[in-house]
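User
New here, explain this?
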Amino acid sequence: MRLADEIGARVAGADAMISGLQRVRAAAAAFYGYWQAELGPIFGSGFRPPVNAGFVRYLDSPEVSAAIEGLVQHEEAERRSIGSLAHPSLHDRIAAIAFLPSNAGFDDRPAACLLSNPDELEDRVLTFVSLDLGARKRVDWEHVAEIVYVPIWQKRVAGYSRLLGSCTIATVPVARNDLLRIGSSLFTTYETPSDDVRIVRAWELIIGAIGVALLPLGWTPEKRPGSEVSLNRDGLKLQPWSELNAMTGGRITRAEWRARCVDLGIADVPLAAAADEGLKPSPKG
């Protein structure tokens, strides 16, 4: 491996080779999360977005790029390769070629430009991984929120108005006991999920209810790779998951959350009505 690194550095320059090592490590670290968190729900709904294009946007998102940059910097400082005792660390691989000459005029175009038909190759790779993936209906990222996530929200909340009671968006339940009570009701008596799983399911119901409740009021969902689903209207933006997480984490108070909802004009929107709304047919993709 070090011989290959040295050859690459002598051909393209040490700076180009080091940049390549860093980018490959960043992409490798990020891809599992991209496949599970971003593509998983879309594949599970029977659709397939542009995978390669989405991964580029995923890596460029502020949340992901900051996390990956921190990981790469950590590994550059470590002499032992994370997860392997035999594999040379990123630190050692960079140190082994850093003394070689750089090439100020190296070509910094992405390697994908060497492919004559990347879309066709993407089809072939996905079909190789699974015939089902290759056969899924295509959807552009701009339509993922509407076609994939809105039906997911509707399915989650349908028929559960009794769990949401008289809560409005401003008075969503956030106490641990309330979340456990709601989450427990979403499982059968034969299932024994952990408390953490119950709480996650409760949050999925609550956030789904917020989304479904706001759609008829002119709010539109948006999903970008690397970011949560947001709701937008007339230049206003709500990110339910992160904003509610800020309240439960103590970074904002219940009063600040209510004030935020008042500013958005959604404080008194009932969540129980959203559960009934969820019973209506989903939009067709």
